[in-house]
Amino acid sequence: MNDPARKQVVKRLSPGFVTQLKNYVELMRLNKPIGVWLLLWPTLWALWLAGRGHPDGGVFLVFILGVIVMRSAGCVLNDFADRNIDPYVERTRSRPIASGAVAPMEAITLFVALSLIAIGLAAMLNRPAQVLAIIAAGLTIIYPFIKRFVSIPQFVLGAAFGWAVPMAFAAQTGEAKQIAWLVFGTALIWAVIYDTFYAMVDREDDLKVGVKSTAILFGDADLFVIGGLQLLMLVALIFVGDMADLGAWYFGAIVVAAIIMAYHQWLARNRIPSECFKAFLHNHYIGMTIFIGIVLHYTFTPGLP
Fold first, then answer.
1. Residues spanned by the domain of 149
2. Is residue 60 part of a domain?
3. Alpha-carbon distance 274 to 257, whole Å?
4. How confident is the model over 91-129, as pLDDT tens digits?
5. How confident is the model over 185-221, as pLDDT tens digits?
6. pLDDT digits (tens, 9 = 90+) for 129-143
7. Model-level pTM?
8. Which of 157, 221, 145 is nearest to 190 (CA)?
9. How far apart are CA 21 and CA 242, in angstroms?
10. Measured at the alpha carbon of residue 196, what is the angle toward residues 166 and 110, in degrees to the nearest 5?
11. Which of 39, 172, 231, 302 has a CA-to-CA distance to 98 between 20 and 30 Å?
């Protein structure tokens, strides 16, 4: 093929290629990084606690990439599993598979490709972390389908999002110590909190299509239960600080996190979907605040190595 003809082919193909690439980006939710942040913050808590403020650089890089890849893979599989549900939910009907922009088999191919990348990243970690990575993969696969059968899928999501915590401790120290499981439990509780806010947005649509959620399970007591979970999370964070010998910087961060939680209750007080969604998005700042408190402790506390 001569150069002018090749240029014509490229010119004709490029718009379609760019459009489909954009569809894949949307399918992986890379254009909506909130999920990456919510998964990343507990991972960073764990890396800094396990490394006492100095996590291994290689481990840090693997986990950052792993968070992005696994969250992307989870979103792809979730949309594949919900391909017959999303068209009937106002917020999700424009997603790539639901709208027909991406074929189901394309999504499966993309999921397999992302999974292979994740396997490659896990291969760079030590054996204890690799064993835990197998469980993480199982949780990622199970979650998109479990909301059809159980009323508390947010707990499974919490386990999936929090599993990077014991993995990070194992990768950094060779084992998942007691504090690793306490941080994991904290991350799990937090996931139930913010994903219940998220589920409150879709509650009416979910009731119509038969999808289960904690927002439906809690009913009119949703904000009361969320408040109890927020209190439980704060107590768990205090125990983490005590077990890790963290100081004033960290406990100050917990106070700030408590204020943010109160703001989320105020946002969702009338259960207006758009305000509940704001509360969900704003949870990102809780994870960030706790991480800042941990970093400041290891940076400014005298006598630490």
1. 30-300
2. yes
3. 22
4. 888 899 988 899 999 999 999 999 999 999 999 999 999
5. 999 999 999 999 999 998 988 888 888 889 999 999 9
6. 999 999 999 998 998
7. 0.90
8. 157
9. 47
10. 60
11. 39
Please indicate, yes or no, if residue 84 is contained in any of the structural domains.
yes
Cβ-proximal residues to 225 (8 Å cutoff; 6+ apart), any chain? 196, 214, 218
| Integer Cα distance of 18 and 226 in angstroms | 42
Model confidence at 165: pLDDT above 80: yes
Is 266 inside a domain boundary?
yes
CA–CA distance, 37 with 230 (Å, rounded to integer): 19
**End-to-end alpha carbon distance in the chain:** 65
Q: What angle do CA 177, 245, 233 make, to 5 degrees?
A: 70
Predicted pLDDT at 304: 65
Q: How many domains does the chain have?
A: 1
Q: Which residues contact 180 (CB under 8 A, 6 or more apart)?
A: 46, 50, 165, 166, 168, 169, 170
* CATH code assigned at 118: 1.10.357.140
Count the neighbouring beta carbons within 10 Å of the beta carbon of residue 27.
24
**Residue 67: closest CA among 44, 36, 45:** 36
18 found inside a domain: no
Give the C-alpha separation, 76 to 108, whole Å. Answer: 8
Query: Which residue is associated with the tokens 């004033």?
Result: 248
Residue 262 is encoded by which pair of tokens? 């109160």
Using CA atoms, how far apart are residues 136 and 133, in angstroms rounded to an integer?
5
d(CA 50, CA 56): 10
Name which of 30, 133, 37, 9 is nearest 76 in CA terms: 30
